[in-house]
Design a protein that fits this description.
By secondary structure, the protein is mainly alpha-helical. Helix content is about 55%, strand content about 0%. Helix 2 (about 30-40) packs across helix 6, helix 4 (about 60-75) runs antiparallel to helix 6 (about 90-100) and helix 9 (about 150-160) runs antiparallel to helix 11.
């Protein structure tokens, strides 16, 4: 284990101990209808074709709900998402989150070189990423599923955390990414994007 990952080990362990929350009452059909009006043009129904737009299907409802709330309140910003979330009610966001969380995950089809993927696996193992993202990077509660996510989107988010352009993570990713190079980010993204854990 490298020095930078060892120094973060305890902090990561503590920050990843989230309470398990029960989902509020959601209307999945209402979420589906709203998704068709607001979301599917970019996010698709089960997966996106644009590699910089995240796949939402199969994420936890809590992660999805919190991201929408953060966009609405300005804790996370995006030129498309921020205005779209502005007028949604809490129930709208709960319904959307429930709908997408119940969709079948379909991973992307991008592939990296075997050497890059192997390098990413070693970096992820060394950095203890699965303490929060769980085995197979399948995610939990407030921590996103990143297995099978688009490579370009993963790199974009890692860069945003490093540059402090995205800070709505209680500081965990921001602190961790401070010592990670672009080459390491690309290797980890290649590894994680190629995981197809169901």
């Amino acid at each position: 284990m490298s020095a930078w990952s060892a120094s973060l080990g305890f902090a990561l362990l503590m920050s990843c101990q989230f309470a398990v929350f029960a989902a509020p009452v959601a209307d999945v059909e209402a979420g589906k209808k709203l998704a068709e009006q607001v979301c599917t043009a970019c996010h698709g129904e089960e997966k996106t074709l644009n590699s910089e737009t995240p796949i939402l299907a199969g994420q936890t409802w809590r992660y999805l709900y919190l991201q929408m709330k953060d966009f609405q309140r300005g804790r996370r910003t995006n030129e498309l998402m921020s205005p779209l979330m502005k007028d949604l009610s809490r129930q709208d966001m709960v319904n959307l989150a429930a709908y997408y969380s119940q969709q079948t995950f379909r991973g992307q089809n991008e592939r990296g070189s075997a050497a890059l993927i192997d390098a990413g696996r070693k970096i992820a193992d060394d950095a203890l990423c699965t303490m929060c993202h769980l085995g197979g990077f399948k995610g939990q509660n407030e921590v996103p599923r990143v297995a099978g996510q688009h490579y370009s989107y993963i790199v974009k988010q890692l860069v945003a955390f490093k540059n402090r352009e995205r800070t709505n993570d209680a500081g965990t990713m921001t602190a961790y990414m401070s010592n990670v190079t672009r080459e390491q980010m690309e290797a980890v993204a290649a590894y994680v994007a190629n995981l197809q854990t169901r």
